[in-house]
Design a protein that fits this description.
- This protein starts with 8 loop residues before the first helix and ends with a helix.
- The chain is an all-alpha fold and 298 residues long.
- The protein is globular, with a radius of gyration of 18 Å.
- The protein is built from 12 helices and no strands.
- Helix 1 packs antiparallel against helix 10 and helix 2 packs across helix 10.
- The chain has one domain.
Length: 298
């Protein structure tokens, strides 16, 4: 693996900003779920973000891909990176706190290391990475709570659903590297969201019925935030940070997201996590730092 880039103050600032934007998305999604069903919330997220990104594609003068192979890749990417994880995590948030959802979401980086090692020769699982992965799994096990592995409930099922979403994110990253690396990132993101919207729309109509547009102002504000700011806008910022910081350093954004979600969940939803959640996140964060440092040495 190539050496990671040195983070400039500007890169640090944008990385932290990205973490804050994504951290706040968890509470905005939960606010919307007070009024709209799960699949409807996901459709709003993919549809409005898709429109915004295609406008950006048009404004920047990029060509729209026409090859069936590329659109097939968009559908798979939309399934793995949007439809599956967005749905699982939104459903999970109905039964677990916002902050815990964000903590479990941080395991995306841990699963990403394992999936990359499985499919790519240049992403070998070194001893230091294996140590980081083990710390990550210990941390998430503590955050979930041993008792939830013994007796299943809606809460434990919701936590497993969120973890399944992070596994889907990990496979999406591998698929993007394999099938979409030759496309401009903004085109790949817009195509992915188009693919996910195509997949989510019929499911939403079957499960929730036709989405109502008569919603409270707070719901529309939440939708606008998580669809336009935290999805479309965050993708644009993500690629800026990726170019400045490199993929390894970008992993550090996962350390910013949970504290933001925990604070906002407490302020806006009155949530309070148990001590094991904070201990688990601390161990998970240590594992992520180990993975980040191992990437620098490899």
């Amino acid at each position: 693996m190539n050496a990671q880039k040195h983070l400039s103050p500007h890169a640090w600032a944008e990385l932290v900003l990205l973490g804050i934007i994504w951290g706040a998305s968890f509470v905005s999604i939960r606010i919307a779920l007070d009024t709209i069903p799960v699949m409807t919330s996901v459709l709003h997220r993919t549809f409005w973000a898709m429109l915004v990104l295609w406008l950006v594609v048009w404004a920047q003068g990029h060509k729209v891909p026409r090859a069936p192979r590329v659109w097939g890749a968009f559908l798979i990417m939309g399934l793995l990176n949007n439809a599956i994880p967005f749905s699982l995590m939104a459903w999970g948030q109905l039964y677990i706190d916002t902050g815990l959802t964000a903590i479990l979401n941080a395991t995306t980086a841990v699963f990403g290391v394992l999936v990359a090692a499985l499919f790519f020769r240049d992403e070998r699982l070194t001893r230091s990475r294996l140590f980081g992965v083990c710390l990550g799994f210990i941390g998430v096990t503590i955050a979930i709570g041993i008792q939830n592995f013994i007796g299943f409930s809606l809460q434990s099922t919701a936590q497993l659903a969120v973890l399944a979403g992070t596994v889907s994110y990990a496979f999406a990253a591998a698929w993007a590297r394999y099938a979409l690396s030759d496309l401009p990132p903004i085109v790949a993101a817009a195509g992915m969201l188009t693919g996910s919207t195509i997949l989510v729309l019929p499911l939403t109509l079957m499960i929730d019925g036709w989405p109502s547009l008569v919603l409270p102002a707070v719901t529309w504000a939440a939708i606008a935030y998580y669809a336009i700011v935290a999805t479309a806008g965050a993708y644009l910022l993500y690629y800026r940070v990726l170019a400045m910081a490199g993929s390894g350093n970008l992993m550090l954004v996962t350390l910013v997201i949970p504290p933001v979600a925990i604070v906002l969940g407490s302020l806006l939803r009155g949530e309070a996590l148990p001590p094991n959640a904070y201990l688990g996140f601390g161990i998970l964060a240590t594992g992520l730092l180990v993975l980040n440092r191992s990437g620098r040495r490899d």
